[in-house]
Each structure stands twice: as structure tokens, then as C-alpha cells.
Design a protein that fits this description.
InterPro entries: DUF5703
Number of helices: 1
Protein name: Dihydroorotate dehydrogenase
Shape: elongated
Oligomer: single chain
Number of domains: 1
Structural class: alpha+beta
Radius of gyration: 16 Å
Pfam families: DUF5703
Organism: Propionibacterium freudenreichii subsp. shermanii (strain ATCC 9614 / DSM 4902 / CIP 103027 / NCIMB 8099 / CIRM-BIA1)
């Protein structure tokens, strides 16, 4: 998230959870009302292409701010036994 102006993001949360044997990371971003629709689209596209996130939910509030939930699978590499 280094390429985002800090004035865009009001808050952010990151958590891991395991459901049905699949471990996922969920990230919640709260974007300010000054962020345009095109900027949000560009942000979500970059997150999907470069960081592997997918959009889980997007909510727009009456004050114009947006809350975006992103999710991605956590893939753990396992060592194989050498024979």
C-alpha cells in the first residue's frame, strides 16, 4: 500500500481466518470521500494484479466515504521430504 496517498485512507484493518480448511487474509480499507470512483477502480485493480487481493465487498456511506473489504488465499509452501 506504499503507492497510496495517505490522505485517501481513513483506516485499515488486516486479519487472518481459517474457514473450511482454507486460510485467508482479509483487509478492510476505509476511504475518504475525496477519492473518486476512477481512483477507487485503479486502486482495486492494482491490488488485484500485483498483490493477489480480490474484492469481497464494497460499501458506500451517506457521507461519501467507502469501506472496501479485500480477501486473498494464504498459500503455504511445504517442504517435501528428500528421499
Amino acid at each position: 500500500m506504499d503507492y497510496l496517498p495517505s490522505s485517501w485512507i481513513a483506516s485499515t484493518r488486516l486479519r487472518r481466518r481459517e474457514r473450511s480448511g482454507v486460510e485467508t487474509e482479509e483487509q478492510c480499507l476505509r476511504l475518504t470521500r475525496e477519492v473518486t470512483r476512477n481512483q477507487v477502480r485503479r486502486l482495486l485493480t492494482e491490488q488485484a494484479e500485483h498483490d493477489g487481493w480480490e474484492l469481497a465487498r464494497l460499501r458506500r456511506y451517506r457521507d461519501g466515504s467507502r469501506e472496501v473489504w479485500l480477501r486473498r488465499k494464504v498459500i503455504r509452501a511445504r517442504l517435501t521430504a528428500l528421499v
